[in-house]
Specification:
- By secondary structure, the chain is an alpha+beta fold.
- The protein contains ten helices and ten strands.
- The longest helix has about 35 residues.
- The structure holds flavin-adenine dinucleotide (FAD).
- Flavin-adenine dinucleotide binds next to strand 1, strand 3 and helix 10.
- The site of flavin-adenine dinucleotide has 22 residues, from strand 1, strand 3 and helix 10.
C-alpha cells in the first residue's frame, strides 16, 4: 500500500477486497495496459479475471448472488483499477450503474431476471442517455417510444454508449408521451427501457443496430458506440420499474452514484501519475543531481501529492454519505469536479517531469495524458457539476432576510 490515499475505518472485509484488487492490478493490469491500449484491444483476459474476483457483482445484494458491498468499497476498487488502466474501470462502471438502477427502481420480476446473471458478469450492462445533438441537456432527448398493444416501438439515434458493443443489456432513456398530456415537463415524460441484445456490432436485434466503435484519442480498449433504433419493439414489462414517465429520475439517480465512481477514477489515475512522476524524478539527473533535488521539481511533487490526498478524501466522503442513506448530490458533484480537475493537473505535472520522454509512447505517462481529459466530460462536464453544486448551495444557504 502507498503512503498516499489511505482510507481509515475500513472493515477487515473491505481491506481484504482492496488488497486482492490491488494485487490483481499490479500483476495483471499494469504490465499489459499500455500495450493493449496502443492496439485499442479489448482486455478480455483482464475482464475474465475481474469476473472471477466477483467484481461485476460487488454492489449487487447477496440474495441475487452478488457481494452486497457498499458504494465506498466499490469506489475504492475503482480507484485501484483506474490506477492500473482507466478503461478497465469503464468496463465495470456502466454495468454497475445499470445494476444499481435495477436494484433501486426495478420491479421484482426485473430484479430476479437480470441481477443474478449480472452479478456473475454473464449479462453486462450499458446505459444510454446521450444523442448526437445532446449530452448535458438530457431534457432535449428526441428518441421516442410509442405504445402499440403490449409493446412499445422505439425510434431514434443514441450516441456515446460506453460498452455499447460488448454489453447485452442497455438501459435506454427515451421520450414516451403516452399518458402524459401536452405541456408535461420534459423530464416527466421520459422512460427507461431495459433493452436486451446480442453483444457485437451490426443488427444485434431486429430494429436495433450498433454501427461500430467510435475512434477516440484515449480511453481505448473499451468500446464506445452509437445505437440506432428503427422500429425496435420492446415489451411493456421491460419499462424499468413498470411505470412510464420516471426515466429521467431513475437515470439521474444512477448518474449520481456514477459521479462518485468517476471521482474514484480521477483519484486512481492521479495516483498512478504521481507514482510515475516521483520515480522518474529520482532516476533522471540534470546539472549534476537528481531532478528530484531541484526545488522546482520537489514543489511539483508536493502539489501533486496534496491533490491526490484531497481528491481521495472528498471521494471517500461522498461515497460514505450515500452509504449512510443521505442525499449526496452536493458531495458527489464536488468530488467529481475536484478529482477530475486535479487528475488532469497531476497528470500534466508528471508529464512535464518526464521531459521529452513523456512524449514517447514508450512511457506510461503518455497514455495517462490522453486518458485524463475524458474524466472532465463523463457523467456531466465540469460546468454541469458547478451548476449542480451552485444550485444545492443556494438551497442550503437560502437568504432568510
Ligand atoms: C468517451 C465517452 C464515453 C461516454 N459514455 C457515455 C455513456 O455510456 N452513456 C451516455 O449516455 N453518454 C456517454 N457519454 C456522453 C457524455 O455524457 C457527454 O459527452 C457529456 O455529458 C457532455 O455532453 P456533450 O458532449 O453533448 O456536450 P454539450 O452538452 O454539447 O456541451 C458542450 C460544452 O458546453 C458546456 N455546457 C453545456 N451546457 C451548459 C450550460 N448550461 N452552462 C454552461 N456550460 C454548458 C459543456 O460543459 C461543454 O463544455 C460519453 C462521452 C464520451 C466522450
Amino acid at each position: 500500500m502507498s503512503r498516499l490515499a489511505q482510507t481509515h475505518g475500513l472493515t477487515d472485509v473491505q481491506t481484504e477486497i482492496l488488497s486482492t484488487v490491488r494485487d490483481f492490478v499490479d500483476k495483471e493490469i499494469i504490465p499489459v495496459a499500455t500495450e493493449l491500449e496502443h492496439r485499442d484491444e479489448y482486455p478480455q483476459d483482464i475482464v475474465d479475471g475481474l469476473k472471477e474476483l466477483g467484481l461485476f457483482g460487488l454492489m449487487i445484494p447477496e440474495e441475487y448472488g452478488g457481494l452486497g458491498e457498499s458504494l465506498l468499497t466499490y469506489a475504492l476498487c475503482v480507484e485501484e483499477i483506474a490506477r492500473g488502466w482507466m478503461s478497465v474501470s469503464g468496463i465495470i462502471n456502466t454495468h454497475f450503474i445499470v445494476a444499481y438502477m435495477l436494484k433501486q427502481h426495478g420491479t421484482q420480476e426485473q430484479k430476479d431476471h437480470f441481477l443474478p446473471r449480472m452479478a456473475a458478469g454473464d449479462i453486462r450492462g450499458a446505459f444510454s442517455m446521450s444523442e448526437p445533438a445532446l449530452g448535458s441537456d438530457v431534457s432535449a432527448i428526441s428518441s421516442k417510444a410509442v405504445k402499440d398493444g403490449d409493446e412499445y416501438v422505439l425510434n431514434g439515434q443514441k450516441m456515446w454508449l460506453t460498452n455499447g458493443g460488448t454489453s447485452s443489456l442497455v438501459a435506454v432513456l427515451v421520450r414516451s408521451d403516452e399518458g402524459h398530456p401536452e405541456g408535461t415537463a420534459p423530464h416527466r415524460s421520459m422512460t427507461t427501457f431495459l433493452v436486451e441484445k446480442e453483444p457485437g456490432f451490426g443488427e444485434v436485434r431486429p430494429g436495433l443496430t450498433i454501427p461500430g466503435k467510435i475512434d477516440k484519442m484515449g480511453y481505448k480498449g473499451v468500446d464506445t458506440t452509437e445505437l440506432i433504433m428503427d422500429g425496435l419493439r420492446i415489451p411493456a414489462d421491460r419499462v424499468l420499474g413498470g411505470v412510464t414517465g420516471r426515466g429521467f429520475y431513475q437515470m439521474m439517480d444512477g448518474v449520481e452514484v456514477g459521479r462518485v465512481n468517476v471521482a474514484a477514477r480521477g483519484c486512481g489515475v492521479a495516483q498512478r501519475a504521481f507514482e510515475l512522476g516521483v520515480q522518474y524524478a529520482q532516476q533522471r539527473h540534470t546539472f549534476g543531481k537528481q531532478i528530484a533535488q531541484h526545488q522546482a521539481i520537489q514543489f511539483k511533487l508536493a502539489e501533486m501529492a496534496t491533490k491526490v490526498e484531497a481528491a481521495h478524501a472528498m471521494m471517500v466522503n461522498a461515497a460514505r454519505k450515500k452509504d449512510s442513506g443521505e442525499r449526496n448530490d452536493l458531495e458527489a458533484g464536488m468530488a467529481k469536479y475536484l478529482a477530475s480537475e486535479y487528475c488532469k493537473e497531476v497528470v500534466e505535472d508528471a508529464f512535464r517531469i518526464h521531459g521529452g520522454y513523456g512524449f514517447s509512447k514508450e512511457y506510461e505517462i503518455e497514455r495517462l495524458y490522453r486518458e485524463a481529459p475524458m474524466l472532465l466530460i463523463g457523467e456531466g462536464t465540469a460546468e454541469i457539476q458547478k451548476m449542480i453544486i451552485g444550485r444545492r448551495l443556494l438551497e442550503e444557504y437560502r437568504f432568510q432576510g
